[in-house]
Amino acid sequence: MTAHPGFPSAPPLTERQEARRRRILAASAGLARRGGFGAVQMREVAESADVALGTLYRYFPSKVHLLVATMHDQLERLHETLHRHPPKEPEPAARVAVTLMRAFRALQREPNLAEAMLRAFTFADRSAGAEVDAVSRLTTEIILDAVGARGAPTPERLSAVRVIAHTWHSTLIGWLSGRISIEQAQEDIETVCTLITAETTSEVRR
Questions:
Q1: Contact present, 68 and 121 (Cβ < 8 Å)
Q2: Which residues contact 116 (CB under 8 A, 6 or more apart)?
Q3: Rounded average pLDDT over 58-78
């Protein structure tokens, strides 16, 4: 049996259930790529994934749950790529900035998918808390991996990581809505990533 990825409290999935879940996520991403949030209809997802509609709802109670889980799945793929090809910059802040811009550009190449996932993530209510928390944990893990520090992160580092993650999320929304350019997004991300340097310096002083 396979543990439900990203959701530690969920019961483990059998191989067959995991394969079904993978098909559902692939169908969700495929429909979103073609038409954004509006194109992801639960009945069409079920048909594309070759599962019954009732089965789909047992895995994902709503379209928002499904798209936030799709976001987690896409971030997992990014995380795997970063493990294979980690950033080479010498400074932690620069490594984090490069990592987040690689993620940004990956989403830039698929704006419909990015719009669908971010819209669901932004407007998810408490019922999708497990999915939202999983995305947040994975984003934190990606940033901490880029920092490269060993051991448990300090509260100050986690606070810096949260601010960086919030800024990354906001720049994505700003770019998707046409309010900021990719160059402005990169400038904002590089600026906020200096919190890592400041936080590391304060650790050394203590």
A1: yes
A2: 32, 36, 37, 39, 40, 67, 70
A3: 96
Q: How far apart are CA 131 and CA 61, in angstroms?
A: 11
What is the DSSP code (8-state) at residue 177?
T
Token pair for residue 203? 């650790």
pTM equals: 0.87
Judge contact between 69 and 125, C-beta under 8 A: no
Name the CA radius of gyration of the chain, rounded: 18
How far apart, in whole angstroms, are the C-alpha atoms of residue 71 and residue 77?
A: 10
pLDDT digits (tens, 9 = 90+) for 172-193: 999 999 999 999 999 999 999 9
Q: What is the mean pLDDT of residues 68-97?
A: 94
pLDDT band at 33 (very low <50, low <70, confident <90, very high): very high
Tokens of 176: 């998707």
Output phi, psi for 194, to 5 deg. Answer: -65, -15
- C-alpha distance from residue 45 to each of 39, 65, 69, 162 (Å): 10, 13, 14, 33
User: How far is residue 128's CA from residue 120's CA, in Å, rounded to a whole number?
Assistant: 10
Can you tell me the distance from the alpha carbon of 187 to that of 190, in angstroms, rounded to the nearest whole number?
Answer: 5
Sign of CA dihedral 164, 167, 169, 175: negative
**For position 4, what pLDDT does the model report?**
54
| N residues, the chain | 206
**pLDDT tens track for 89-125:** 999 999 999 999 999 999 999 999 999 999 999 999 9
